[in-house]
Amino acid sequence: MNRFSRQTILPDFGAEGQQKLSQARVLVVGAGGLGCPALLHLAAAGVGTIGIVDGDIISESNLNRQTLFGHQHIGRPKASTAAEILKEKYPDLKFEIFSDFLNTNNALEIISQFDLIVDGTDNFGTRYLVNDVCVLLEKPLVMGAIYKYEGQLMIFNYGPAALNYRDVYPNPPGENQIPNCAETGVLGVLPGIIGTLQASEVIKILSGVGKVLSEKILFFNLKNSSFYEVAIQPNLKGRKNLPDSEDDFRSRDYKINCGIAEHINWEKALDWTFNMNNSVLVDIRETGEKPLLKKDYLRNMPQGELRENPELLSAYENILLVCASGQRSAQLATELKQQFPEKKIFSVEGGILHPSSPLNSNKNDT
Question: THIF-type NAD/FAD binding fold domain spans which residues (predicted)?
Answer without folding.
Answer: 4-233
